[in-house]
TrEMBL record:
<protein>
    <submittedName>
        <fullName>Lrp/AsnC family transcriptional regulator</fullName>
    </submittedName>
</protein>
<dbReference type="InterPro" id="IPR011008">
    <property type="entry name" value="Dimeric_a/b-barrel"/>
</dbReference>
<keyword id="KW-0805">Transcription regulation</keyword>
<keyword id="KW-0804">Transcription</keyword>
<keyword id="KW-0238">DNA-binding</keyword>
<dbReference type="InterPro" id="IPR019887">
    <property type="entry name" value="Tscrpt_reg_AsnC/Lrp_C"/>
</dbReference>
<dbReference type="InterPro" id="IPR000485">
    <property type="entry name" value="AsnC-type_HTH_dom"/>
</dbReference>
<feature type="domain" description="HTH asnC-type">
    <location>
        <begin position="1"/>
        <end position="43"/>
    </location>
</feature>
<dbReference type="InterPro" id="IPR019888">
    <property type="entry name" value="Tscrpt_reg_AsnC-like"/>
</dbReference>
<dbReference type="Pfam" id="PF01037">
    <property type="entry name" value="AsnC_trans_reg"/>
</dbReference>
Amino acid sequence: MLECSRRLQVARGTVQARLDRLQARGVIGGFGPQVDPAALGYPVTAFATLEISQGQGVDVRAHLASVPEVLELHTITGQGDMLVRIVARSNGDLQRVIDRVVDFEGIVRASTAIALENPVPYRILPLVEQAARE
């Protein structure tokens, strides 16, 4: 808080109050570290589009949440029903992860794409700056 206060040239209490409001509104969800899966030994990233059986969404979500290599899950429109970001130790290990992901009765089909490069990693600051200008 002191560093933010110094950089913004406002009182520490003002910084704290603003952060509290942003957290209460859900704009800021946390202050945790950014962990690189590659540094943990998981350099392969892939995206799997899953088609699921009708009425199986809740169970499939629970299954996918139990797989540590599943980093994100989004329900989507289009060809599939869910988009999953997964990581693996190697291309060979990716097969193991995919097998674990699809080893569930509610998943009908999966299509996987391996990410080759991440030239624009996850970022939020440009969006925040734009929103502040609007």
